[in-house]
Specification:
It contains 16 helices and 22 strands. By secondary structure, the chain is an alpha/beta fold. The longest helix is centred in the middle third of the chain and has 15 residues. The protein binds 1-O-alpha-D-glucopyranosyl-D-fructose (TEU) and calcium ion. Keywords: Glycosidase, Hydrolase.
């Protein structure tokens, strides 16, 4: 049986600080803005808040390029602001999880400024330097996620340095024990400030072996994670979640198995990357396939049924808005938003709500590249133009999967700029803020927001939601997701119609059930047998408890 952990029953809310709430009118979200919204998060039932990076940074990648791990970016506030946030959150029974970005730093980090001075410098081996190849070009064929080679020639020393992201994000050399020691020291500095855990950025990369062109799952990855665990959070009861785009069910058990002394859980991305185009990746729009989506989600539920733990999410700051990607933002926004929440939150694992998902925020209809801010999008746009692809095609792809979709300001009310700021925001607000906003959602009993609030409460009220064994049904059904959770004699059936048309569903005899309707986005459904007619995006859960 699974040993009980506090984060098994928790729901995490991800905040992208730059876009959450601006308290001083400079158009940029900040920490006091977050502190001012803690009651909003408390009323939703949130237990943990994961903050995307708040540290000093030139903001080349909006904070995922850190120049001082132990100071706050001035546009976000001060250490005192942060400590107040931690205290105010704790007063409300909530914890703060920080984003640990240690695959790379900013090129403005003092370590890199020293390192690039040359081979004699004690910090030289904090980063990955290589001599040019025979032809004077990059040492090997590694490519950056943000386009182009992962190597940049540094004229000062005539050597190349590695950056798997932007050239302003030089990769740290984790093979260097001094690097690991400095990182652990920094982590303990934050742990002593009472944080509730870490989300670990591209943590599957820290075991990279560059000369063998091994980037993720390197041979020492798990040695480093076990060392990190021992040296920092292992003795504390905190939540750790690794971002692992390369994760498989097998590796997930290595990261999160109960006897592994590594992490609590990992984010896997198979349900995301399976929809991408083989050649153009996410930049070529492609509708998602429910049968494939269900098979990936079920595979992960089965793989971690007895050990390890799933992190459940539809979106984050790198992904398009869930309602636009998997729901129906134009036709049935409210019922499809509730359906998506029901399908995800009643699976086994810790749910992560991305800011704005709970009020049905959608992708933003930008029409020109000047509206975009994300370095990945801007770099890829240039590469598409260089490759002779049409700008219109690129914008179509960015509209569907660009990261800025998740980074437009949180929509608090119908006030100017959606109540996010009294000044001009750093990125345009989605024009639908007058209809889609937190103020309207909280006062509407039938809103997506209230549906999330109920789901989050269900997790706390019913152990079957946390620990029930997952079993999928009707796997080949193209429109409907059906699964059961069982715990002892109790059984819960979850049905979610992912389609915009009515569906007549034939219920397998094994699924016959009569019980309490825990939640629904139309009228309550208390029994299943024979056939049932589902409305567009209809979703519900029935719990049959042994009398
Ligand atoms: O993302 C890692 C990562 O691989 C993504 O950037 C992914 O490649 C991309 O979004 C797919 O289009 C983490 C952070 O979540 C991301 O915001 C950072 O840009 C990146 O690492 C570098 O720190
Ligand atoms: Ca501000």
């Amino acid at each position: 049986g699974t040993e009980r952990k506090w984060w098994h029953s928790a729901t995490v809310y991800q905040i992208y600080p730059r876009s959450f709430c601006d308290s001083n009118g400079d158009g940029i979200g900040d920490i006091p803005g977050i502190t001012g919204k803690l009651d909003y998060l408390k009323s939703l039932g949130i237990d943990v808040i994961w903050l995307s990076p708040i540290y000093k940074s030139p903001m080349d990648d909006n904070g995922y390029d850190i120049s001082d791990y132990q100071d706050i970016a001035p546009e976000f506030g001060t250490i005192a602001d942060f400590e107040q946030l931690v205290a105010e959150a704790r007063n409300r029974g909530m914890g703060i999880v920080l984003d640990l970005v240690v695959n790379h730093t900013s090129d403005e980090h003092p370590w890199f400024i020293q390192s690039r001075k040359g081979p004699g410098n004690p910090f030289r081996d904090f980063y990955v330097w290589r001599k040019p190849a025979e032809d004077g070009g990059p040492p090997n064929g590694l490519m950056s996620s943000f386009g182009g080679p992962a190597w940049t020639l540094d004229p000062e020393t005539g050597e190349y340095y590695l950056h798997l992201f932007s050239r302003r994000q030089p990769d740290l050399n984790w093979e260097n024990p001094s690097v690991r020691k400095e990182i652990y020291k920094m982590m303990n500095w934050w742990l002593e400030r009472g944080i509730a855990g870490f989300r670990m950025d591209v943590i599957d990369y820290i075991g990279k072996q560059v000369d063998r062109e091994i980037i993720h799952d390197g041979p020492h990855l798990h040695d480093y994670l076990q060392e990190m665990n021992r040296q920092t959070f292992g003795s504390r009861d905190i939540l750790t979640v690794g971002e692992c785009w390369s994760a498989t069910p097998g590796s997930a058990l290595l990261y999160s198995g109960r006897d592994r002394q590594e992490l609590s859980m990992v984010f896997q991305f198979e349900h995301v990357t399976q929809q991408w185009d083989e050649t153009y990746g996410k930049w070529r729009s492609k509708p998602f396939d429910l049968v494939k989506l269900k098979s990936v989600l079920s595979k992960w539920q089965y793989a971690l049924a007895e050990d390890g733990w799933n992190a459940l999410f539809w979106g984050n700051h790198d992904l398009p808005r869930a309602l636009s990607k998997y729901g129906d933002a134009t036709g049935y926004p409210v019922v499809s938003g509730k359906m998506l929440a029901t399908a995800l939150h009643l699976m086994k694992g810790t749910p992560f709500v991305y800011q704005g998902e709970e009020i049905g925020m959608t992708n933003v209809p930008f029409t020109k590249i000047e509206q975009y801010r994300d370095i990945e999008t801007l770099n890829m746009h240039q590469l598409h133009l260089d490759a002779g692809l049409s700008p219109e095609d690129f914008i179509k792809g960015a509209n569907e999967n660009g990261r800025d979709n998740a980074r437009t300001p949180m929509q608090w009310s119908a006030a100017p700029y959606g109540g996010f700021s009294t000044g001009t925001p750093w990125i345009e607000v989605n024009p639908n803020y007058s209809r889609v906003n937190a103020q309207a959602a909280m006062t509407d009993e039938g809103s997506i927001w209230n549906h999330y609030r109920k789901l989050i409460a269900l997790r706390k009220a019913h152990p079957i939601v946390i620990y029930g064994l997952y079993q999928s049904w009707l796997d080949q059904h193209p429109d409907v997701m059906v699964y059961t959770r069982t715990l002892g004699p109790d059984r819960m059936v979850v049905v979610a119609n992912f389609s915009q048309h009515q569906v007549t569903l034939t219920i397998p005899d094994e699924l016959n059930i009569t019980g309490e309707c825990l939640i629904s986005n139309y009228k309550p459904v208390e029994s299943l047998n024979g056939t049932i007619g589902l409305e567009p995006y209809e979703a519900f859960a029935i719990l049959a408890k042994a009398s």
